[in-house]
Amino acid sequence: MSANSSAGGQLLWQGPVCTGWRQDLEGALYHLANCFLLLGFMGGSGVYGCFYLFGFLGTGYLCCMLWGWFHACGLDVVLWSFLTTAACALQLALLVYRLRGDTLPEEFHLLYKTLCLPLQVPLQTYKEIVHCCEERVLTLATDQTYAVEGETPINRLSLLLSGRVRVSQDGQFLHYIFPYQFMDSPEWESLQPSEEGVFQVTLTAETACSYISWPRKSLHLLLAKERYISRLFSALLGYDISEKLYALNDKLFAKFGLRFDIRLPSLYHVLGPAAPDTGTESEKDDEDVREPATSSPRATPTSVQQTPPCSPSPAATNPPAPPSRARMSRSDSGVLASRTPLQSYSQVMSRGQAPLAPIHTPEL
């Protein structure tokens, strides 16, 4: 036992001593192979790091195999170098296959660069979102409807990729939807996951459009499972809805020349066409407004004060025609509004500022 241990220690610490060193150096292939191996072992991590690593290692072992075949003339050197070269080549082929399998279509790649990359959304997270819509791109022909008011159920969420969609209600144009905007974000936010509903507007394609669509149930399951994706969709949908509200506000500004507060109730009645009896109702409102003003002591003429209480007033028997609201000056409207409960609203409107939402919205 002691003899074996002494022999092992002698081989470990002393080893065979070279009787003579070769005077000539190895060929260029040997040194080139070691250079490639040195560069290969300096590779990093990740997909591109693996490409770098296995690319240089495979090239280095290939040079070793050629050196063993032409200069060393050793079968063992050739075989081991061939096996390592083949292993590196197989790793490179596997990486290429995985990259080709993970490649997104052109539409989804452009969507990622436009919408998600500025928000620093990880690519793997984006692939989960795309997988939820089955990587399908749907199309709409010109004048084809995506949703019909009061008929189409709210069972999906869609994002426009190209083209332009017109949104209308009762035949009245509201606003446009442009690429990389959600087509039904207000409808999505208006319902809980367990609720059902139908569209309150009509969406019609003005040009040839392409869009992607997530089924409602599948997307709700994904949002419930992934908290980061849920927060991402909440931010994107909130921004999209605010853009639609500002589009409605700009339409009001172009129509009336005043900036309205987007929180005003009954905003659609301001946008919508005037009903046939709108003028009659406005005249009745003006009569109701002028009656208290006529009965006040300062505004009542002298002849009216001398009449008996039982006789009807001239203003009541033959009221003057109220001026049209479209032609009424801002000063007149301010005086008229000062006698009504909407004094603050009319004063703000006369200054051209955005009013706060009143309890009773005046007809515009």
TrEMBL record:
The keyword Transmembrane applies. It is a multi-pass membrane protein. Residues 273-364 are annotated as: Disordered. The chain crosses the membrane at residues 51-71, 77-97. It is found in: Membrane. InterPro entries: cNMP-bd_dom_sf, POPDC1-3, POPDC1-3_dom, RmlC-like_jellyroll. Keywords: Membrane, Transmembrane, Transmembrane helix. The keyword Nucleus does not apply. Residues 293-307, 340-350 have a biased composition (Polar residues). Residues 309-323 have a biased composition (Pro residues). Residues 26-251 form the POPDC1-3 domain. Belongs to the popeye family. This is Popeye domain-containing protein 2 isoform X2. It comes from Ceratotherium simum simum.
